[in-house]
Amino acid sequence: MKLARELYEKAMALKLRKWNTAEHLETEEDMALYLEACLEEAGDDAAFITKALGDIARAKGMTQLAKDSGLGRESLYKALSGEGNPSFATILK
């Protein structure tokens, strides 16, 4: 019982953070390879691709993308979250 308690306390002391793919997409090549891998993996899962595009957008800078596309930053975050349902026109922008 003591060992279980010690393991529990160690686990609770760990400071984990959520993985953020955008932090690891540093170059245009990284982004292209990531998108290529996601396209191969996604099959017919459009939300998977949308999420990948969102990761790339965050890596490039969502504020600049919003300015360049004429769309609001919050709208882009929602559309590219993988949970939104953006129109193809939004993706093309």
Helix/strand layout:
Elements lengths: L1 H12 L14 H15 L3 H15 L1 H8 L3 H7 L8 H5 L1
What does this molecule look like?
By secondary structure, this protein is mostly helical. It has one domain (26-92). It has six helices and no strands. The chain has helices spanning 2-13, 28-42, 46-60, 62-69, 73-79, 88-92. α2 runs antiparallel to α3 (46-60). The longest helix has 15 residues, at 28-42. The radius of gyration is 18 Å and the shape is elongated.
| Average of the residue pLDDT scores | 85
In total, how many domains does the architecture comprise? 1
Q: Please write the string of helix (H) and strand (E) elements.
A: HHHHHH
Radius of gyration: 18 Å
Can you summarize the main beta sheet? none
Short description:
With 93 residues, this protein is mainly alpha-helical.
List key phrases describing it:
mainly alpha, 93 residues, 0% strand, elongated, 6 helices
